Amino acid sequence: MKRLDSFWYSQNPLAWSLLPLSWLFRVLAWLRRVLYASGMIASTRVPAPVVIVGNISVGGTGKTPLLIALCSLLQQRGLAVGVISRGYGAGHGGVHVLADEDDARVCGDEPLLIRRRCGCPVVIGRDRVAAAQHLLETAACDLILSDDGLQHYRLQRDVELAVVDAQRGFGNGYCLPAGPLREPVSRLRSVDIVVWHHQGAVDDAAFGFRLEFADAVKLATGEARPLADFRAQRVHAVAGIGFPPRFFGQLRAAGLDVIEHAFADHHRYREQELDFGDDLPVLMTEKDAVKCTGMRLPGLWKVPVNARLSRALQQAFMDRVTKPDE
Fold this sequence. Notes:
alpha/beta, Rossmann fold, 2 domains, 15 strands
């Protein structure tokens, strides 16, 4: 990911050499969307409102914590929510209804995290139409949240949210493979809400959110400790997410002395990879921790994050999902 960041987020000769492929990718993405919008390629509407929480760029934008917060917001308002997800690296070829005890290697790390945090029905499948249909066949849902899928046009949607990392922005502004964009920035003009992920304070009048750490939890025992307890010593920090520097930077901002260990997004850990030959605590993201259940290493801790949504975002989101046709 570091190599990709080095040219996706800068102007450089390698990116420029790939511009013809980028232009072709952009045209094909536009054509595909037009064909679905015109009905020339069939799309499917399921009998429940569908809300897409996605992005136009490759890499971490904080989308999953945002979806968890939106799911919680809907549940607090008394709505029955179901989630569909592709399930990156999942071993199931069709669709699968998740259970808390599922293995992340079989169902994917993000869907399992959503299932455990939200407690709502979660169905994974590469075919999002089939996943949505199966969800409605097996659970009573007032609406469906789709974890990603902004570009999965075969599933008709009622509301689209696009998440943008305010720190990284749109990189060099090019579509794949010259840049990090799945669709051009102009696509944001057609979504219902553009949600900005900020590193610092969030203006309550803006459509934004920030991630805040909760207490660290020891994987072996479930013991919870404030992050401040780790300031007196160095810690190993492990992150296999879309943008590991964000996790490391937040730990440093909390006053921790961090030894960084960045892995590829969705990395499947082996126990020996997390044995650093000392007694220092090993802090990891909650997404990484769902893949490390049962490891015998005693010093593993997960650091959950919660998305704090601005008041404007909460209001706009609830207005859109309860009045999707306005």
